[in-house]
Design goal:
Layout (H helix, E strand, L loop, with lengths): L9 H12 L19 H19 L1
Length: 60
């Protein structure tokens, strides 16, 4: 497998992520990395809750 790191404008992020999620899970691994590592507590909590929601949706 190869790794590709890209930076994308916020306005295109959701559309690109949706395209990538339609690829076979055995062929792709999506790892989101925030562009800034200095999250406030509220931003960190929102991010975590969003990721948990996505995870639980996939598991159901």
């Amino acid at each position: 497998m190869k790794t590709l790191n890209i930076q994308i404008e916020d306005s295109l992020y959701d559309a690109l992520l949706e395209i990538l999620k339609n690829l076979p899970e055995t062929k792709i691994k999506i790892q989101e990395i925030a562009s800034t590592s200095n999250f406030s507590f509220e931003e960190s909590m929102d991010y975590t809750l969003k990721k948990n929601k996505e995870l639980y949706k996939r598991l159901s």
